[in-house]
DNA sequence: CCACACAATGCACGTTTATGCACGTTTACA
DNA sequence: TGTAAACGTGCATAAACGTGCATTGTGTGG
């Protein structure tokens, strides 16, 4: 991280707490490269200001509620995080990556490395909010009328904004995946947008939880071979995986949780 | 790199701080080829002008880039909610309202009536997220490169998107308010956007907490008479309120908490 | 041309602050 | 109930701090 100003460290810890994240003293000590004593002093000071609640092993935010991302990430949790970690290995420093809407791409935000100077583009509100919490990343928001179901902008303006980006890589969530029927989505507008996104990206990755293979969805996005890489969970059926590979798609297996 | 003018050095340091970068005294001393004493004097001067926060080892930007909106979100809770409730009474059914970035407009989202079939437009990520949680509202998101300090899109694309909206009413937060100096903002791009927003709206309302009257900010947005209505907190100084009214602005007092 | 004010700087001094380590105590968990 | 980790406290150290003072360079008025 950047400058080792003591108070800056304290601010960063305070920011995490204000964000609703609990902090662990030992972890922070390693992360900031100082002894646990120093961290404990910080936490004590913050607690004295009423900015957190001191507990054995670390500290908790004084307002424990309300933290949309972390809550969701915890709950849907380990599986999507594992997919996200695997997908994050594909990203190269300095790239402009586009994150599609959905909880799996959302998990990817927290898995992206800090030091890569990435630019993240998205049309999804919750993903933008998550990126905003990551210091080192630039954020480009696509505007338009927001579809309340998808949680992101989805209209002609959005498509137009997409066309103005030089995307290096995109990550999609899909409603349904099959080697024979390709990718499908629940909503027509969402499918159309994903189709444009695939066309606009020289390299596209789809994050797939195992249940997506058995799912059906009405709107065809593209054939599977339009995607360069699929990230699969460990319990994905081998038959489907082999079929995707036979189409020329590369596969990435997430580590078992 | 360096002209030897001392003031030029101070300006460069100020520029970095305005950019959100923390600075380390020892590093700056080596970089500019002067003693740490000189740097410390600069930092002290800048801090005295309110342009940074002095800390042990260097200085931090007064609005740290890394803990953007989340930290200041709920600090003045009840007060801002009271302002929001007062402002919400101005809204008419079916309108397209634009919400500026800031914690006060954010509070307004939850105060808006459900049954009015409103369309809310914004360029701020957190406000969009809040609107998304309200069922009966339509949401229009303005896109563009997102300013991490403001927490919303702020570039030419955003301005263009604004021009394509038929806004009925807009609600602004301001960094500083004064009858004589008008509205001011901390950041140039933010000020420019607010200026466009005022021009694009037939009716504009500014939500003002009492501390905004004593605050200073470098970038002038518009004179106070460019705003139709100010919503004031109960403890706002009467002198300032009278001065605003003398300029032809209507006032709305929030109920005491 | 000189004297002087003035601002910026570097240096020396004593003071404050943050840190790490050592010690004994408390806490969580098996 | 026992154990290991986390805790708080005291102390020593090094870095950063503020202040006062001498030096330098520049511009101005006598």
TrEMBL record, chains A, B:
Key words, A-Z: DNA-binding, Repressor, Transcription, Transcription regulation
UniProt keyword Magnesium present: no
A molecular-function term among this protein's GO annotations: DNA binding
Pfam families in the cross-refs: DeoRC, HTH_DeoR
Alphabetized Gene3D superfamilies for the sequence: 3.40.50.1360, Winged helix-like DNA-binding domain superfamily/Winged helix DNA-binding domain (1.10.10.10)
Residue ranges of domain HTH deoR-type in the record: 6-61
UniProt protein name: DeoR/GlpR family DNA-binding transcription regulator
Organism: Uliginosibacterium paludis
